Structures are given as structure tokens and as C-alpha cells.
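S2.1 Query sequence (SGNH/GDSL hydrolase family protein)
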Amino acid sequence: MIRAVLFALLLASPAAAQERILAMGDSILSWHEGRGQSVPDAVALQLRTPVENRAVAGARISHPNALARLAGFDIRDQVPEDSYDWILANGGGNDLRDECGCTGCDATLDSLVTADGRSGEIPALVDRLLPRTDRLLWIGYYPVSIYGGPFAACAAELDQLATRLQAMAALRPRVHYLDTGRAMPPGALRYYAPDLTHPSPEGAARIGALAARTMREIARQP
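Output C-alpha cells follow.
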């Protein structure tokens, strides 16, 4: 009898609410989305929780064209009005390529995030997102492949961006930086798409698994 009552109570109990997760940024997060093999798709698979993906290929942190901003090419305008348990975000690489050609990029880097991580367009975006999420995971860029690719000239600037973004995250509670180089060794060609810029499906799965594992570890922290 007691067992039957407990079973009935379990059936009557509401299911645990799923976490709400948002992904936003550029093509590193949107690549393979149409086939369900993007980085956010891999996170969703690992956590068994849907991930809303607003990332747009070619998006910049800030875009000067109003029509492009309307189409989501300005990452700052990918922000919905909803609240989330997690926000996964990335960006900045297309700004470096388009604004300074990855040569003499000090001014562009400073506009994105200052060396101390305190100010710039990315910290301003993060500070704007924090009231809408419990935690934010900034997904850094993985190393440029040793086989080259369109962003080969940007390697030094991307390294500087990563260092600054880590400083930004360290200054802000609830903000965490993910070093995706742990999942994407630059010599492992199979993890890169043929364009040597984006992750292959296998690479995206590895990044997503790393992100999900990191999210679980953070959630267990007191």
C-alpha cells in the first residue's frame, strides 16, 4: 500500500524544469547547425537540454551596417528579452579580420576588450547579459590549424584576444572562459572543416562535449 502511494505521488509530481540555455555569436557556434551537428547541438546532446542557437555566420561583436545588424550580424543584437540559466557566447574574430586585417590591430583589440579586461565592447556586452542569466560561458577561439587557413595571419591577435577575455572573465563572478584549444589540437586536421577555419562535425562535437563538461563542473561548485 505504501509503495503504491509513493508511486502515485511520483506520478503526480511535476517534472523537473529543464535549464534554459542560449547560444549567441558567430559561425564557430552556427556551423553545421542545419545538420544538427553544431557546437550548441553537441552541448544539448550532452546535457539532454535544448539550446536556443542565435549565432550567425559572419557576425561581429559590432557591425557598422544597420541592415546587417537587423539580420543578426551584430552579436550585441542577438540578445533576446528572455532570461536563461546559461548563456554561451563567442565573437571578435570577424572584427579583427574585417577591421584591421589582423595586422596592427591594437586599436581594434582595445575596442573589443582592453588588456586588463575591464572595458570594451565585449565586457559591455557581458555586463548587459549578466542580469539575464545565472552563468555565462565565453567560448574562446581554438588555435589556428598548423596547416594554415584564412585566419592564419590572425593567430597572434587571436592569442591576445584570448588573454584579454580570460582577464575579463576573472573579474566577473558568474562569467567563465572556455579554452577550446583543449578540444582542438592545431595539428589534428580531422577536427577542422576543409576551410581550416570552422570545426568539422567531430571537432564541434568535441568542443560541445568540453563545454558541457565545464558547465557541469561549474554547476557543482558551491
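The CA atoms of residues 191 and 203 lie 4 Å apart. DSSP finds nine helices and five strands in the chain.
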